[in-house]
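Predict the 3D structure for this chain.
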Amino acid sequence: MCVCLCVSVCVCERERELVHSSPVKRERAGVIRTRMEVTRQNFKEVLPEVCSAVQEADFISIDGEFTGISDGPSVSALTNGLDTPEERYTKLRKHSMNFLLFQFGICTFRYEQNKSTYITKAFNFYIFPKPFSRTSPDIKFICQSSSIDFLASQGFDFNKVFRSGIAYLTREEESQLREQYEERRGQMNGAGPVSYTPPSGGGACSVPEDQRDFIRTVEQKVDSLLNSSDQTLDLEPCTGFQRKLIYQTLNSKFPKLHVETLETEKKERFIQISKVDEEERRRREQQKQQREQEELNDAVGFSRVIRAISKSGKLVVGHNMLLDVMHTIHQFCAPLPEDLDDFKEVAMSVFPRLLDTKLMASTQPFKEIIGNTSLAELHKQLRAKPFRSPVTECPEGLRGYDTSTEQLHEAGYDAFITGLCFISMANYLGTFLTPPKSHISARSKLLEPFYNKLFLMRVIDIPYLNMSGPDLQPKRDHVLYVTFPKEWKTSDLYQLFSAFGNIQVSWIDDTSAFVSLSQTEQVQIAMNTSRYAESYRIQTYAEYLQGRQKNSSSSRRWAADGWADTPYTADSSRLHAGKRSISPSLEEQNHYSDSSWTHYSSGKKMKTDGGSSQTYVNVADSEASCDWPRLQPEGGASVSPVHEEAEPEKSSVNQSQGKRSRKHKKRNSDASETTPPALFDVPKVW
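Done. Predicted structure below.
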């Protein structure tokens, strides 16, 4: 949303009054929080402040706005209720990555213990891949009319994006451009006079017959310059090939002249020729090199912000953030890999700790209290009892958001309220402690069950994508894969399976769908009755998976440390590569590798072949309720959250994760000799 940035002095005075007033007064008054709109014009000035805010933050919340969601399938087809995590990732990668993330919101939160207050700094970045030179990437992207129409209805300022958006480059793109720059610089230093090297390479070429009159005219103008008192000559704008011929000719016949290509206000390129001595020529060359270096640094642009967040290792919080993470990596870091496991490895090297507030709100103990987990509704519900809105404060002199006036779908505002939602839910967990705690740190072990798990929209029995380990793999023995003529509709499928009671249909495409039966024992009956059918075909879900695996060119095995054995390795110079994520617990890993999955039920426990039971908590979205395993505290023994909160939390991300990794490997080696560790004793609802 386009927002006026004019803030009167009385606002800052009002803020100072509210800061020293009671928390209730500050909350009710809707304190104006820190916000800054960042475009290409002020990005250089703001960048140090952004990096400083990131370094000081306890956690960072993010949000993105895109030019569209799906370039082909409808949203319902893109989010099939029986997608596997691999299928969902593949569909999003194929149908969503050609859109542009063109507004990025960041809000940093730093807790001040003595004031019991969060200091917030929100930044709203406008992003646009403007080519800074002929050799820089000329990005192509698509728009979805419904998405653009929706953003326009919210007051989104598209002119600000396209006229003033901040550029960006991936590491690979930056490396290629720097190599080209160094190559040109080496040629210039070695040859003495400036020579022209076209982007596509290629050496000197002979002057074609149809260009000889043009070159002779240029030579005559240069002769006139040398015989006059004028110091410079601006040639008429011409084609790239003609400029190449000019450089080539002047470099050969007039080596002491300084030749440079410039642009008019209308982006027309022309050549300027100057009479200079050797010292002046070298000075101008140095100035030109400095300008090129500054242009290249400007072209890296917003990618520097993502690198600063990645380097900090801080917790990154988002709401329904799978697409945000995918777009961020694809646009600012490196193209997304084809395989899901490779994507997880890359994502964890960029963002070591992630937390999705939509998943958190869909989980016990929140799901029984929160009826709607959309961001706007979640923010409203978390401002009422039994939750408490956090007290926030903005540094003096900075502009901010007013929570009394919603600015939804502006990325900076959405990032801001996402952070508020996270704080409210985290602090609510503190009420289960003995004694209760009003503030729960972003590094608290109470939050570990939510780390690196991203909400999967509309998947019936897999509520999240596990970024730091293997995903849930329910058997889905009650599910059938049905193929049929293109003319069939949902009513035809209901008629086909009318004898089997209640069914659920999940469309895959025009000629196939999943049909979920109410009872697993009905599957074989359905298979038998369709054996001689000609117009349709029925397979079990297991047969469907086997067919897909045969067509798959690669397979993955999970190693003992919870990471996939994969030939893909993130370039450490590009992505800060390193497995810095939290490894899955023993209970979770054993649970995922167990081949005895049965279909989810509403019960809290589920038997395995070994006779032991696994405990679950419920997760719900707008369509269905299902169960998911909770994570385990490190160390193996039953641990009270009270004890956990008392432990120091100042160790670095890499050190703590290294310890987790070593403990995890040790537990795996002893798994056959030890009993599964106990779960959290408190709170009981987990």
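Confidence is low (pLDDT under 50) at residues 1-34, 190-203, 553-686.
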